[in-house]
Amino acid sequence: MRILDRYLVRTFSKVFLGSFVILTVSAVAIDFVSRIGYFLNPEQVEGTFAEGYGGVKLVFLFYVAYIPFVLKEVIPFVTVASGLLTLTHMLQRNEVFPVVAAGVSVRRIFLPLFLAGAVVAAGHVAFQEFAVPALTKEQVALKRFFSGDRSTGVDDLVHLRDGKGTVTVAASFSFADRSLGGVVVQRPWTEAGFDRWTAPRLDPDGRAWRATEGLEIQPAGVASLPRRMPPGTPVDIGVTPDEVEALASKKGTADLSYTQLARIARKFPERRNLKMALHKQLARPLSSVVLLLCGVPILIGAGRSHFLGVATAVGLSAAYYFLDIFFTSLGDRGDLPALFAAWFPLAALLSLGLARLVTVPT
């Protein structure tokens, strides 16, 4: 690696870390102020700041689980801001033009910044795939606790399908213990017809379920007699408790990993929001590199102001998020194919960035 490359990567890393810390602390401070009434309400929290350590510990645990969700959203903005501020730093110190005069093209100067952005994007994918899903359940539960949300669950759960013919209908789903109530399971078709299983309640058992209060099985065939199964009987409906919770909670769906989303989307092809979430799991991390590709050529021909660098980053990020929200709504409603709606905002900015990069004087 050349000295110039090391210098750019080192500067980018410093700015990235500083921006990351500032935005995270700001987001936590704003969120804390907005929730302080919940945190200090003795009717909702057992042990407050004034009365004991319990409330402080709960608040600390809440923000330990909350911060990863903030980071997931701000990583693209932090990346483009870090790249543009790194370049602004070089422009202010008149470090770009001597390098160009020495025979290094302007596009070659951009390369370490783009590679740094690609590394961040790869880290974003890994972070989103492994860290965020592990914290989703705890974060959602703590948020409901502090907000005083005592809702027991949902009563309009969609039919659950395993993709192999098994269809499960549940009267209710509980957020508290993730149990299903009033369950009817229809097994795949056989020559004699459908097997029908009924249970008052199914409780999660790892990735499967158990019939806590027993299970009645009505085999296919008119002459077949129903069988009663004892309490605690394992039941495999082909859909895991995590997947059921994701379907019952839109936020849960958004914070699943790509692998989990892909599995659910295959089982529920009629759910357009699942298709959109699946494509956006890949599109969102790539926005870091694309926004950087757009911003660097714009900044190199505009000036040396730090304000301009920040303004360019904010403007590009705002444009991307506006397009993303607009096209996501169209995709969720079915007005546009999910593939087009999820990737068009990124493709539009990528085209702009490539066009600007080609026109940069070398």
Major sheet: size, sense and barrel closure?
9 strands, antiparallel
Mean pLDDT: 79
Q: Unreliable stretches, pLDDT < 50, 5 or more residues?
A: 46-53
Q: Whole-number radius of gyration?
A: 26 Å
Instruction: Report helical residue fraction.
Output: 55-70%
β-strand percent reads 5-15%
Overall geometric form: elongated
Total DSSP helices: 10
> What oligomeric state do the depicted chains represent?
single chain
> How many angstroms does the end-to-end distance come to?
21 Å
User: What is the structural class?
Assistant: alpha+beta
Blueprint of the fold:
Layout: H1 3-39, H2 53-92, H3 96-101, H4 106-147, E1 153-154, E2 160-161, E3 167-174, E4 180-186, E5 196-205, E6 208-211, E7 215-218, E8 227-229, E9 233-235, H5 241-248, H6 250-254, H7 258-267, H8 272-300, H9 306-333, H10 338-359
Antiparallel strand pairs: 1-3, 2-3, 3-4, 4-5, 5-6, 5-7, 6-9, 7-8
Helix pairs in contact: 1-2, 1-4, 2-4, 2-8, 2-9, 4-8, 7-8, 8-9, 8-10, 9-10
